[in-house]
Amino acid sequence: MLDLLAVQSSTAHPTVITMVYTLLLAFVLSSLIAFTYEKTFLGLSYSRNFVQAIVLSSVVAATVMQAIGDNVGRGLGMLGALSIVRFRTSFKDPRDIMFLFSALGAGIGCGVFAWGVAAGGTLAFCAVALVISRSGLGTKHFFDGMLRFAMPNESEARLALEKTLRENMKTFVLITMREVDDGGRIDMAYQIRLRPNRPAAEIVTELNKIKGLSDVQFMMQDATTEM
């Protein structure tokens, strides 16, 4: 069995087994971070390339830190080399930046042979990310989303709409209404709260059954998710 204390005592001149262990641990920890990102992702524009970049960035960071070691000259040279590279990738979600920073932190920790810190920090980060995603921390809105559609300006259609909304929604509030086609049709928008046992797809299906109702759109309150 690999003696971690013996390995850490030789970090000034790392052996092949030390370098392999470091890169392997960086890969495992970054894969755990990527898996957590995938399971807690709530947005619309999911990127497979970004998930892979999380893993690769940790391995690169571990390699760079091992190459620098305790040599100040190498560190300054690496800083100068990296200053030539221009990273122009924009992040629309600040949460993505935190996951990338976490992977880099794990890689740096492995690269300087602080394996306990790297593993402990990664496990803590993933646990907190899972708890936050399940707890709904930061959710401020009362409604689940907004429902928009167009319907005939007739009492029969309005009665059918009200009946459908009452049967399928927990709460609904009219926020906009305007006449189109010289008053023949109405564009309407509601803020709604869904019932626990009624998914949005079923509600959209029920609304489409109303005669004359068209252009049904349901948008989640979270701006990054839309149906």
Task: Write a structural description.
- This protein is α+β, with helices and mostly antiparallel strands and 227 residues long.
- The protein folds into 2 domains: 4-135, no CATH class; 145-220, ACT domain (Alpha-Beta Plaits).
- It is 56% helix and 16% strand.
- It has 8 helices and 4 strands; from the N terminus they run ααααααβαββαβ.
- The protein has helices at 4-8, 16-40, 48-68, 72-84, 94-111, 115-135, 155-168, 200-208, and strands at 145-152, 169-180, 185-194, 214-220.
- It has a 4-stranded antiparallel beta sheet, with helices on one face.
- A hairpin with a 4-residue loop joins β2 (169-180) and β3 (185-194).
- α2 packs antiparallel against α3 (48-68) and α5 packs antiparallel against α6 (115-135).
- It starts with a helix and ends in a 7-residue tail after the last strand.
- The relative contact order is 0.12.
- The model is unreliable at 1-10 and 223-227 (pLDDT under 50).
User: How many domains, in number, for the residues?
Assistant: 2
Our Rg estimate from Cα atoms comes to 27 Å
Oligomer designation: single chain
Number of strands: 4
Helix content: 55-70%
Secondary-structure class = alpha+beta
Query: What average pLDDT do the residues reach?
Result: 80
Total number of helices: 8
The poorly predicted ranges are 1-10, 223-227
Biggest sheet architecture: 4 strands, antiparallel
The topology string of helices and strands comes to HHHHHHEHEEHE
Q: Tell me the overall shape.
A: elongated
Compute the separation of the termini in Å. 53 Å
Strand content: 15-25%
Question: What spatial order of strands do you see in the largest sheet?
Answer: 2-3-1-4
